[in-house]
Amino acid sequence: MVNFTENPRHYTAEGLSALCEGLSQRFGDRFSTAQSLRDQHASTLTWLPAQAPDGVVFPLDSGEVASVVALCAERGVPVIPYGTGTGLEGHVNAPSGGISIDMSRMNAIVAVHAEDLDAVVQPGVTRKQLNDYLRDQGLFFPIDPGADASLGGMAATRASGTNAVRYGTMKDNVLSLKAVLASGEIVTTASRAKKSSAGYDLTRLMVGSEGTLGVITELTVRLHGIPEAISAGICPFASEQAACDTVIATIQSGLAVARIELLDALMVRAANNYSQLDLPETPMLFVEFHGSEAGVAEQAERFGEIAAEFGGGPFSWATKPEDRTRLWTARHNAYWAVGALRPGARSVATDVCVPLSRLAECVAETRRDIDRTGLVAPIVGHVGDGNFHVQPLIDMTDAGEVAACEGFLERLVQRALAMEGTCTGEHGVGQGKRKYLVAEHGEAALGMMIAIKNALDPRGIMNPGKIFMP
Amino acid sequence: MVNFTENPRHYTAEGLSALCEGLSQRFGDRFSTAQSLRDQHASTLTWLPAQAPDGVVFPLDSGEVASVVALCAERGVPVIPYGTGTGLEGHVNAPSGGISIDMSRMNAIVAVHAEDLDAVVQPGVTRKQLNDYLRDQGLFFPIDPGADASLGGMAATRASGTNAVRYGTMKDNVLSLKAVLASGEIVTTASRAKKSSAGYDLTRLMVGSEGTLGVITELTVRLHGIPEAISAGICPFASEQAACDTVIATIQSGLAVARIELLDALMVRAANNYSQLDLPETPMLFVEFHGSEAGVAEQAERFGEIAAEFGGGPFSWATKPEDRTRLWTARHNAYWAVGALRPGARSVATDVCVPLSRLAECVAETRRDIDRTGLVAPIVGHVGDGNFHVQPLIDMTDAGEVAACEGFLERLVQRALAMEGTCTGEHGVGQGKRKYLVAEHGEAALGMMIAIKNALDPRGIMNPGKIFMP
């Protein structure tokens, strides 16, 4: 089991007590230190141990967040932003104590500028909430991690999902944001212009900073028109290698695929069981094209030809919207579907990303490693970007199995790094991936990150214990 | 005339002399203090006065750049990275003295990874050099400022160009870079993976930082497949308003236009004269579509319909590749074509960017302002992004005209900011736009930038006097 030394608390019991009194006065019953609420705000979807905060506050706007941060800063008490708690690397844990800032009541859609293809939202708005709101206007927001995550949390972890191959990640789809810094100041990182060369890119600096530089309190996100035509389908393959080779050839051919997802045979079995599908239990690509009626038909045909070259197929279309929805819902539910394969076991969801040219090799080596190690661990991924997930199911009472899994995770990351990849394509660093940052970035680049962190948060109160080792 | 107080030099004549001796020893005739060379390295394409460096060095690799920076740091002497000297806001000036690091000999294309659609290049490689090299492999790099700029300079200023509406700007097309920091350390900002959530986005922090945080010594850039079919054409309009309205409707309709450029009547006249075209001298859109044969035909047809709704047309195609090249060469030569309208006058090339919904209004108000002020100033722009350029031609010996131009520039920026836009869409801040950063970003965000700058360059030797006021 992964254990982290609990960071020291840099505040006294008296300081905390005075802070809690201040927060109670300011926020009434929107601040609480009830144990059940605190525990709930440190729940995690993976095997990292929970570390509860000292209290939870529910602000309503940027000004209130600034008050919370200012009050905490006065006592040296950490703040931990909380969205939906669906992060996979311990982002909402409170290893040094502190106050969890729950954004669930900051869930207003402030403005939709249809002409500019952007929307201004509070950070607690979830991706499904935004898309439900936009649908009537013919617009959508493409970033879709498996969970119905909050946009603030998605920005903080630089999330992506199935559409990233076509629409990019959160870094490409946040135009601007507001954040409260450690000083209590509220910054706006950019205007609503689609592009700018006016100084440092604070937007991209905040996206992916996991709450360690500031608390995101508003986002201006890019929207896209719902395509005139959408076609989705599934294509079975004899091996993961053949599926990966098809992905590489598809991307290189310039086909503007909107989604291209690999599921290995075990993942397909999990999806069949959990989502009542009856897919052949063999490696498979889920694909989707966006465009005009003629355009998607042309692209689908060309994709079918490419797949056939690698022995894949037949490529079958989900022509009805409800069949398409069923397919993608099954894909989005992968995390829970995998969990159901081995009731009682803990899911250890992890991800890496490599250059596309190394994808087939990386997946194949990983499959051999899983088999050799004797793990139950489906592979599923956003393979158009070279990004894939492995989700070992671990009996946490079996020390040998836990150790075997730890060894596997270590080798997975080292394999991705050796192939010029990254230790995490979209889950973030949190607590779980901190130890890999030196190997990935080198001392100089990591030192640059730490210098920025120290300059903007000299007392270390912004989500401490995340990204950087204590 | 815009005057900047010369910043104080923080080094002694003895210090400089010792440094020059050290550089001569290390670099031989690749270091020079010849006046003509120094003057040439402070030349500028706009009206900002030239401020020559103390010497110029021509390194060959990252290690040599690191030596230059380390030697300069020892004496507190600034370093100013130099690409092709085609920046428009005084980026290569040396207001506090210092050593110009000329990247022209670091112009190797280190690797092309066709399977991964990326290339590794030294910073002195120019955009045309890269595209000439790539053509046989069916690949291209889309970012195209007017000049044949170096990729290092383009990254440093977050450049874009005519293709940005489809392919993004330098921020979207640099995967990773190497840079020498003020400490002399060489950092690599990211892996070659297409996406990552592993810590702060140092790549995007360096892109647009104009040499104030480090000297870029290598870039990994994203490539794109040359589309199967390209169609370009021109569409005349009765007014700039009608052209802008057509742009807005085109983008909103979801048409994946690759280029959509506005030229006002005066700009068309300049292009006709300079590039031997015979276009009707009326506001005009140059457009281009990329895709399959069927796809571009479909898109072109729909664009023609949209233009007709706003009274535009007829839309005429440049079907032959040589006609297309002639069109875009004319567009890229806009800066020089405008200059030729009034020989002896100085070009004051500036740009702003606003949300698309405000574009028509911003262009119309700017046109009225130009006419009222009595300037000769064509408008041309990457209007699909809400970005446009104005290029007043000024008789620098006429104090009244200079003052009138200064007033116009000030109003142009204030107008863009009032419309939720930015003071520069793609030219950068340099010296010319520094005074607008507080108004655009606010004290808190500008303070955040300065905190980062001070943390990474505590002695202020990295391209001082750019982005921030002294």
Automatic annotation (TrEMBL), chains A, B:
Keyword Oxidoreductase assigned: yes
Cofactors: FAD
Taxonomy, superkingdom: Bacteria
Short name of any one Pfam family annotated for the protein: FAD-oxidase_C
Keyword Oxidoreductase: yes
Domain annotation FAD-binding PCMH-type: ranges: 49-226
Family as reported in the entry's similarity comment: Belongs to the FAD-binding oxidoreductase/transferase type 4 family.
The protein, known as: D-lactate dehydrogenase (cytochrome)
Organism, as annotated: Labrys monachus
